[in-house]
Amino acid sequence: MILMGIHEQVKKVKENWLLAVVLLIIVAIPLFSGSTSVGFAKSFDGMVEPEMMAAQAIRGGVYYDDSFAPDVEERKITQTAYLSSEVNRGTFYDAQAKLKSFVTSTDSFILNENVQKYGKDTNAYYTGTYQLKVETSKYNVLITQLKDIGEFQSFSENRQDITGSYTKTEIELEAEEARLLRYKQMYVEATTVTEKIELNDRIFDQERRVKYLKDLLLNKDRQVEYSTVSVTLQEEQSAYANIVLVKFSQLIRNIVNSFNGLLSLIFIAIPYAVALLLVWVIVRFVRKRR
Q: Where residue 58 falls among pLDDT bands split at 50, 70, 90?
């Protein structure tokens, strides 16, 4: 019985071999229409070599300098922070006054203040950004106070060790000061007017170089002594903000998009419908000949 059933199935396949070939072609069309190559391209594009990952890390701001002066015990650390809070509607200026009182109580400074109003009438709300400078010894106190303004949203902090660059600048300053001293000694020992004029120009340039390095060190000291805090205060928006009726033009656009989608679906289905019709015609033709 089993052998007879298998024999009959094989016989039917032989009789309908043309139908099997057409069905195989229909199934194979999507496989060779570019989907395989696209999938491979996506997989290949998603691969990242270790060297590329390292380069991206450097571009993303993570840079490791090997000149961090590990032998220096007193480290030079700069500190910056960003804080964002949301305040209740109608209380923006009260929150701003509170922020300024915290700045005053910690002997800090407001370097930049920018307040913007968005929206109109009942949908209007305020947003303020502030850049503060606070003594590093009072940094934690100020941050704790600022977090109490409104509803705390986000906080980020960054600390950077600049000991290496600071030490290099100190060494360079010592070398430039020694060079300036040699120029002054040579000026005293010079015997001709030409030598004195040339040395006088060198001394002038060297003094400018020494002053630049001193100012650079002073700026680095201030970066260490004072931390930078950026604060954003945003007033809560109205619950009815951005609620508007859809425009008639948008309705028409949606109808056109839906119609275009329907046309696309129809034209995608047409080749398959033609193939199925062809299969049906061939099957009927084969059966009539029998």
A: very low
Average pLDDT over residues 169-189: 94
DSSP 159-213: EEE-HHHHHHHHHHHHHHHHHHHHHHHHHHH--SHHHHHHHHHHHHHHHHHHHHH
Half-sphere exposure (Cβ direction) of 12: Cα atoms closer than 13 Å = 6
Would you give the end-to-end CA distance of the chain in angstroms? 27
Say if residues 76 and 163 touch (Cβ distance below 8 Å): yes
Record: fold of 77-163+224-235: Alpha-Beta Plaits (3.30.70)
Nearest alpha-carbon partner for 235 in 129, 163, 110, 102 = 129
Q: Give the start-to-end residue ranges of the domains of the chain.
A: 77-163+224-235, 245-290
The two three-digit tokens of residue 253, written as one number = 């656009």
User: What mean pLDDT do residues 213-239 have?
Assistant: 91
Per-residue model confidence (pLDDT) at position 27: 55
Higher pLDDT, residue 5 or 173: 173
The token pair that represents 232 in the structure block: 């954003």
Tell the residue number behind the tokens 């009942």, with chain if given: 122
pLDDT of 119 higher than 60: yes
